[in-house]
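Q: I have 331 residues here and want to know how they pack in 3D. Can you give me a structure?
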Amino acid sequence: MSVSLHDIAKAANVSPSTVSRALNDHPRIGTQTKAHIKSLAKEMGYIPSAVAQSLITNKTWTIGMVITTVADPVVADFVDGVDEVAQTAGYSLFLSNSRNDPQREVAVVETFQSRRVDAIIVVASRIGSTYSSKLDQLKVPIVLIENQKHGDFYHSIFIENTIGAKAAVDHLIELGHRRIGFIGAVDRPKSNDERLLGYKMALQQANIPVEPELISLPDSNDDFERGQRGLAEMVAAQATAVFCYNDRTAIGLIKGCEQQGILIPQHLSVVGFDDIQIASYLRPALTTVRQPRVQMGRLAMQMILGLLDGQAVQNQTLSCELVVRQTTARK
């Protein structure tokens, strides 16, 4: 049986309201009485009711986080960063998958609101800027991490996708490659467009023509499958190097190369994006663009705390870093 305020009041020979005030450090309760009641509550194993406290404070101390899938290690790092700051600030985190479905994303956000979470963080939002018109209705702070909808949103965390992608392709060009392919992701429209733009900018600045047959956008929502499907187009276009939308796409490509006897990097140089943990453990280890995923999660939660405190917050754009390993070599 759980211990109630009435149980503590009976043991302390005071009223339940006195116990409640003492546990909440009300100034009208004496120091000795507070200490005695708190000591009794601890001895009796009293656990405050979060529901009751939320009715008093109008806060639930919970944050709803909408993620695309728990299977993506990039998302897992975002969650780690958010949870680290949330736990320190006394908040609990609720997770729910959107599965890259805009309608499901809206439904999850509305469910979180009905659960009276204090704020919501959305990863790779598919409805992005439309939240702007709903903020007044939702009456809950929302922060987006890597919004995938074109258009502005009040509170967002981004990375420099175009600059990072350009650095990846510049690296391949410096190694002497001229037939450089790109395998993209149709289900991440905004970041895909930004990374494709970086790819094109690097080629154009090096006076290398952008050839449509070297750009592959496989019709798949699975990153690994996307890489394997894109390989056929890269082979047909006689690519000597490939820049992939993300590391999981690059891993799928490398797996396909292994099955076909294509050696990495002797026959084909490969660059990914994200620098997930497994990238450095591959053999050969994957050259990739590192994005500060945990830091992005931390910043998103810090932005939430600022909004909950009534502060004006600024959108954040973080830089990327090229990490050169063993999947790229001179042409």
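Q: Anything worth noting?
A: The chain has three domains: 5-48, 60-159+293-319, 161-292. Residues 65 and 121 are 5 Å apart (CA to CA).
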